[in-house]
């Protein structure tokens, strides 16, 4: 599959996956099973997007096989450390400026996890895999090549900013700066390693670090 067609197919599929639980609930009133529906929706969605990615033979200018699985895993953990450091630093600044550092989006997801432990699979598998494919691989990586921005550092920076702002706005949370900064971090790691699997590992580990303790409370 060509890069442009693959990118459109992935973005369209993600939009459908993202909206499907709300759409089904509005039509069939499935409030009693909405958590299970959303979990399966995201897990199946991750498989769908990963499959579309697998059959995309054309690579963007960031993709590279220069890093083996060992470096991918190492940088995945480095990404986790940097992501947690960023969140701690921004939360500290918010506290100093007398602002609320708590994320409503995160709090809502953790509440759903506590109500239905099965939902944790949405947080630690479905969502991070899809978000890395959509926001880092497609909007950041593929956009570079399709728009011809990969020829300059300004173009690469522009696509990273667009990707990160889209990532932040998608979370529908007041902490746009924090999410956008995390998005920029994951863009940098993707470009550094040339492997989208690296940011998937970082994102999965970050979400697991936040969500897993809820199951033991």
Automatic annotation (TrEMBL):
Short name of one Pfam family: Rce1-like
Q: Which family does it belong to?
A: Belongs to the UPF0177 family.
Residue ranges of the TM segments: 7-28, 40-56, 68-95, 115-134, 154-170, 176-191
**Entry-linked InterPro entries:** CAAX_protease, Rce1/LyrA-like_dom
The answer to whether UniProt assigns keyword Manganese to this entry is: no
Domain of life of the organism in this record? Answer: Bacteria
Which terms does the UniProt entry file under GO BP?
Answer: CAAX-box protein maturation; proteolysis
Q: What is the lineage of its organism?
A: Bacteria, Bacillati, Bacillota, Bacilli, Lactobacillales
Q: What is this protein called?
A: Metal-dependent membrane protease
Coiled-coil ranges from the UniProt annotation: none
State a single Gene Ontology molecular function. endopeptidase activity
Task: Keyword check for Protease, yes or no.
Answer: yes
Keyword annotations for this protein, in alphabetical order, are: Hydrolase, Membrane, Protease, Transmembrane, Transmembrane helix
The residue ranges of the CAAX prenyl protease 2/Lysostaphin resistance protein A-like domain are 117-209
